[in-house]
TrEMBL record:
Protein name (database record): Mechanosensitive ion channel family protein
Record domain Mechanosensitive ion channel MscS: where: 121-191
Residue ranges annotated for the Mechanosensitive ion channel MscS C-terminal domain, each copy included: 201-279
Biased composition, class Basic and acidic residues, residue ranges: 320-341
């Protein structure tokens, strides 16, 4: 009997508990699994970017040359991997999913606004693809960028990114030019030719033996170590000036950087060798005769003194005013005589 009552009470208690259940409290805590997943995605993203950069760095070492195409493709690949990785990591959160849904619902309007706002940036990216595919220049080459007849930049190409091209000039300044500007400009590549020609002009007197001067210049070109292909150089009389004849010839070097030093050496040796051969290089002179200069100076001083004496004011300023007709009495006219009867 006791056992049955106990069982009944247990059954009744269980039924009471089922009728009035205790509400379940949901604990708010940190979702460590979600954070771990986000960290793994970000870690894989950054490791992928690191290995991509290392791959291109090793490729440049093997080829011993930095390619403009490789540099641009590395920038595009790095940016794409970073965007995909960050989007995948943020997509695990509920708030990011809600934002993505909202963005997708208004995607047409957002695309139109983004395209209008970033049209210059998109133009630079498209121009970068055009430059990397056509390859008008490469990393380490010397170029000149002209737009409308004006030289924008002249120097060595150091880098190319998704947005711009980096050009280092001879004075040490770095020009960062957008890809769209480079793509629409005239690019003069100074590194492609096998040789670079720089013209040098020398003026000689009319009494000079031209053939003798040509032989001296040709000998200088042949013995200059930086000059190449001296045999194909032609020394021509390009103009007749008021002082003499103008000789013009080309100095050929391997690249533009050697051209400055080679032309400097050639000019210096021409002055020295022409002086030894008594070939006159005319220049303007001024001859002054000391005796004539003293006489002319004395005459000018005397003329200036005479001019000052003529314009000198009177010693007594009152005398000058007395002569003024405003201060003098008007002349009295004689009265007419009366007629006498």
């Amino acid at each position: 009997m006791w056992i049955k009552q106990k069982a009944v009470w247990r059954k009744a208690g269980s039924s009471v508990c089922n009728v009035n259940p205790v509400p379940e409290v949901k604990q708010m805590g940190v979702d460590w699994q979600l954070l771990l997943r986000t960290a793994i995605i970000l870690g894989i993203t950054f490791l992928t970017v690191y290995f991509v950069r290392r791959f291109f760095r090793g490729l440049n070492k093997r080829t011993q040359k930095q390619s403009l195409y490789n540099k641009f493709f590395q920038s595009i690949l790095t940016a794409g991997i970073t965007i995909i990785g960050v989007y995948s990591a943020l997509g695990s959160f509920e708030i990011a999913k809600e934002i993505s849904t909202t963005v997708l619902q208004s995607s047409a309007l957002l695309i139109a606004v983004a395209t209008f706002a970033a049209q210059q940036t998109l133009g630079n990216v498209i121009s970068g693809f055009s430059l990397s595919s056509s390859k008008p220049c490469d990393i380490g080459q010397k170029i000149q960028i002209k737009n409308g007849g004006t030289v924008i930049a002249e120097g060595i190409v150091r880098d190319m990114t998704v947005r711009h091209v980096v050009v280092e000039q001879a004075d040490g300044q770095t020009c960062i030019i957008p890809n769209s500007v480079v793509d629409s400009s005239v690019i003069v590549n100074m590194s492609n030719p096998d040789t670079v020609a720089t013209f040098v002009e020398v003026e000689v007197d009319y009494a000079t033996d031209i053939e003798k001067a040509r032989k001296i210049i040709m000998e200088i070109l042949k013995t200059e170590p930086l000059v190449v292909e001296a045999e194909k150089t032609s020394i021509l009389v390009s103009a007749l000036t008021a002082n003499g004849m103008l000789l013009k010839f080309a100095v050929y070097t391997r690249d533009i950087m050697e051209s400055y030093l080679a032309c400097s050496n050639v000019r210096q040796r021409i002055v020295s060798e022409f002086d030894k051969a008594e070939i006159l290089i005319p220049y303007n002179t001024v001859t002054i005769d000391a005796q004539d200069a003293i006489v002319q100076s004395t005459q000018m001083q005397m003329a200036m003194n005479e001019a000052q004496e003529q314009k000198a004011p009177p010693e007594n300023p009152v005398e000058g005013f007395e002569k003024d007709h405003y201060l003098t009495k008007p002349e009295e006219k004689p009265e007419p005589e009366k007629e006498t009867q």
